[in-house]
Amino acid sequence: MKRGIRIVLGILAAVILVGAVTFCISESLVIRASKGQNYDDADYIIVLGAKVDPWGPSRALDDRLRAALAYLEDHPDCKAVVTGGQGPDEVMSEGRCMRDWLREKGIAPQRVIAEEKASDTRENLRFSAELVAQDSGTDWREQKLVIVSSEYHLCRAAYVGRHLLDYEFGTYPAPTSLQAYKIRYFIREALGMVYTRLFYI
Questions:
Q1: CB of 186 closer than 8 Å to CB of 152
Q2: Is pLDDT of 147 > 70?
Q3: Does the residue 3 lie in any domain?
Q4: Is residue 28 part of a domain?
């Protein structure tokens, strides 16, 4: 009986150890990716959506939009695909909300393309790539594409793009303005990366 308990406890300890090591590795990847990479001179940025509140962009979406605006202002030849559908609790699609926000900030209408059907990161990237092909008149893979999203989300977004579309997207970080939630978001994203690697793709 005691031997059986020791075996069970040993297995439980091993599982906990493997889980802790996996989480630490995942967290280190999320933190490293949060700085962005290979984002200079994009032909198109793909701005990933977040929740739209009744009064406008949520704080997370506002962070992403401000990062996108800064990039577009610094790169006048770059265009943006703003991507996200409309959830059941949203007053409009995320893509439309982002398009209107950027235009109101002075970005020329022809530089902002709205994608309004995507419901997750896979669809965000796939549908946006299709719009890039339509707009550019070329194979979208010939364009340099950079993902703009919250810094904690960049690792997972790039991973999805790499494995789903076999393309190395650049990444440009949108710093999280809600500092009180930042640690929580980074922890959640590390767990999200584990889930994505195991089940999502």
A1: yes
A2: yes
A3: no
A4: no
Window from 50-54, 128-132, 149-153, 184-188 with minimum mean pLDDT: 184-188
CA separation for the pair 101, 40 (Å, rounded): 23
The string of pLDDT tens digits covering residues 39-61 is 999 999 999 999 999 999 999 99
* Token pair recorded at residue 170: 């650049």
Pairing relationship of beta strands 56-57 and 52-53 according to DSSP bridges: antiparallel
List the beta bridge partners of residue 173.
Answer: 149
Contact 72, 42 (CB under 8 A): no
Domain count, the chain: 1
* Residue recorded with tokens 């650049």: 170
- Tell whether the model's pLDDT for residue 69 goes beyond 90: yes
Dihedral class, residue 72 (left if φ above 0, else alpha if ψ from -120 to 50, else beta) = alpha
Tokens of 59: 């704080």
Looking at the domain assignment, is residue 143 inside a domain? yes
The CA distance from 61 to 183, in Å, is 18
Query: Residue 69 is part of which domain span?
Result: 36-177
What is the token pair recorded at 197? 């690697």
